[in-house]
Amino acid sequence: MEDFPVYREFMTVNVCSKRFREKRKLLLYGECVRDEYPEIYQRYAAGRVSLAICMEKEHMNMVGFKLAGLLARIDLEEIVVLTVDGSPHCIQLHFTIEEVEKILGKNLNRKHYVIENGRAVSISKKAVKKARYLSYIENVLKKARGDNV
User: Could you report how far apart the first and last alpha carbons of the chain are, in Å?
Assistant: First the structure.
């Protein structure tokens, strides 16, 4: 069976698509990644159902609800999230996957990557979780500066 076309939006795909059941590996990527970093996109898309999401167009609640529906029905082997670093919109995709894991009560095999300076950087689950807590980040920065916390 042939793959999805090179470009397909996550929000337009049926959560019970046979492609999910066949490949069992999913790449959710920030829509701009494909155009801005085609080599990186191709490397991460290989062997996965590759779907674009633009968090400037879609609310994280909609993306999360759809993703939870997919994961409640199909046991994926892996979910990879690939976005650009520093985007206040793209970071929501990482947060959404983390939230869906909590909601489902499953330990998902999820991997997070951001593109910085033309290369993909692996981001731990712990970093994604901690990034949601600005007070935690502030305390880490204060400690690094030697400030009293």
Answer: 57
